[in-house]
Write a structure and sequence with these properties.
about 425 residues, elongated, Site-specific integrase, Tyrosine_recombinase_XerCD, DNA recombination
Length: about 425
């Protein structure tokens, strides 16, 4: 397949007398005009060479040449040396853009693989990241968010990991990713990050972007091949059955469209459905029929993944339907996460609930109540959308009452 890149101007001329400077990429029969965010008077631009000029030979000067030159000089700061400096800077940026494009072309030509426009855009946007993992990491976060593959919250978390890496080492060439790297980064995190699960999350994010780099044909040694990423059970604990009942009773007392009723409607739905916070916020995109909800889980972004079906309990469906009727919305009324957590804390204090209430406690409560009522953990795994049953077990909290109930059921089965 043929491909080429050339510098062009986009016409017509703008009000300021300049035209946008473009990198025009042609792959096969597809043309991609990429703006370089530069503008230059067309009378002072050599389209054949793709360069900004500050003067023309007398034979090439048109009737408006003097006015154009005066305007360009004024825009650059008022003197010809300043105009020459701007032209020099712009030509440097133009040269860098062409060099980046040609670097991508050479890389794909040597790989003997088919270059598509989408692949070119990806490699062009991450140019320079083939050497530095940090550059790749940052560019990939931005790209994934732009394409809708990660949410705003995930983007924020991934940038937190990026910043931790940046503080650890400001430059991380791919050829420095040896087995010692993971141990050294872990030692750094232990000095600067208190929570074990936070450290676990930082390593998990790094591994995610290393896997993406491998997929993008970066060559490096896997620094996590022999590293054991340890975590502990989450800090959130499920509500006790009595506490859950207290919240349901208080919900019924709250007037429609009040803050506490809105917050509890969504939270209690989570307690009786297991839905994640991200999916709760996007529930208007789900289809519900015969108490079965079909949706694309926010935690998973594979385009080929089939939609998830989640059977809903009668209670869960009732909270959703009431919220939809009261708010005249397709889903719940969504406040900001921090505001919601503060409201849940205030409700817990008002009702004298000892357990700490938080947006994420709903899934913990559903999982524990499911097991408490005799549900099978392998079924719970599917309901919660986990690929590994070990992940599911982190949500299950076995208390003394559950142990007593299990033994009592055994006694009931043994008549002797």
């Amino acid at each position: 397949m043929n491909f080429s890149a050339k510098i062009k101007l986009r016409k017509p001329v703008r009000a300021d007398g300049t035209c946008p400077v473009l990198l025009q990429v042609i792959i096969g029969k597809t043309i991609w005009p990429h703006s370089l965010k530069l503008g230059w008077p067309p009378q002072l631009f050599d389209e054949e060479l793709g360069r900004c000029l500050t003067s023309l030979p007398p034979a090439q000067r048109g009737p408006d040449y003097k006015a154009v030159l005066e305007q360009a000089t004024a825009d650059a700061g008022g003197t010809l040396p300043l105009l020459a400096k701007r032209a020099q800077d712009y030509n440097l940026l133009i040269g860098q853009a062409l060099a980046k494009a040609n670097e991508v072309f050479v890389s794909w030509r040597l790989s003997q693989q088919v270059l598509t426009l989408e692949r070119f855009k990806q490699d062009f946007s991450t140019a320079g990241s083939k050497d530095d993992f940090l550059t790749y990491f940052k560019a990939k976060i931005t790209e994934r968010y732009r394409k809708g593959k990660i949410t705003q919250t995930t983007k924020k978390n991934h940038f937190s990991t990026y910043n931790a890496l940046l503080a650890f080492r400001p430059y991380i060439p791919f050829n420095t990713l040896t087995p010692e790297f993971a141990d050294d980064f872990d030692a750094y995190l232990k000095k600067h990050v208190r929570g074990l699960n936070t450290r676990w999350g930082r390593h998990k994010d790094v591994k995610t972007y290393l896997a993406l780099a491998k997929k993008d044909r970066m060559k490096f040694e896997d620094p996590y091949a022999d590293f054991k990423n340890k975590d502990v059970a989450g800090q959130w604990r499920p509500l006790r059955t009595a506490e859950l009942s207290d919240l349901e009773a208080y919900y019924k007392m709250c007037a429609p469209r009040t803050v506490h009723r809105r917050v509890l409607a969504r939270f209690l739905f989570s307690c009786f459905s297991s839905l994640r916070l991200g999916d709760l916020k996007n529930i208007e995109n789900a289809a519900i029929e015969n108490r079965e909800m079909t949706f694309k889980a926010q935690k998973t972004y594979s385009k080929t993944l089939a939609e998830t079906m989640l059977p809903l309990t009668r209670k869960a469906l009732r909270y959703l339907e009431q919220a939809q009727t009261e708010e005249e919305l397709p889903g719940f009324y969504n406040y900001a996460d921090q505001y919601t957590n503060r409201a849940l804390t205030a409700i817990g204090q008002q009702l004298g609930i000892e357990s700490r209430i938080h947006n994420h406690v709903g899934r913990e409560t559903f999982a524990t109540e499911f097991i408490r009522r005799g549900g099978k953990v392998e079924v719970l795994q599917k309901l919660m959308g986990h690929t590994k049953i070990t992940t599911t077990m982190k949500y299950v909290h076995v208390d003394n009452d559950m142990k007593r109930d299990a033994i009592n059921r055994l006694d009931e089965q043994d008549k002797d």
